[in-house]
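Go through this:
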Amino acid sequence: MRKPIIIVNFKAYEKASGKHAVELAKIHEKVAEKTGVSFAIAVQPIDLRMVVAAVKIPVLAQHFDPIHYGAHTGHLSPHVLKDAGAVGSLLNHAEKKVSIEVIRASVQEAHEIGFMVVLCADTVQAGKDIAMFDPDFVAVEPPELIGGDVSVVDANPKIITDAVEMIGNGKVLVGAGIKTGRDVLMSLELGASGVLLASGVAKSSNPEEVLMDLAQGVLDFQAGKKS
């Protein structure tokens, strides 16, 4: 995926489920085409195939398990998710945490089939620890700010600079409280390669307006404007 990237997690919000997931995905694609900014979306597994069929922007799963084909009732195989059209998946989100052993095995399984992994971490140190498995991105999201009104760039911008220093340039995404183009611009100025957000878009009464504002943050960064 092209960087800087804006990844929107649809979670299991009503406005981002079923037919609404398709509608919201199309809005993301519309904004991506209009602005040239790189967007990706993470959707529920039951919505994956129909969302992939409806849009051309990258679609991610929200979770997967380190399994191949076989007797794994209730698990999510990256092989099946890739076959359904997912380019990759989130993993270890604050709402779906897994052990370090599962992270290691999952990333290894994903690497074998060219399946992208965005590992989530609640602290910079945790992000550094899981970065050793060489995921495509590490999204650092302080859990106390997720879904809130205060963004990580305002609460503690040092989290971002520390993450870039400890995890590596080109690997870090910023999450938690990101809602505006200003948040995006500041995140990129501090060295992040993109953002991961959810409720600011998925619960909005006007998601296109929100997405346009987020995209403007990327465009302002690319134009050299300052926050």
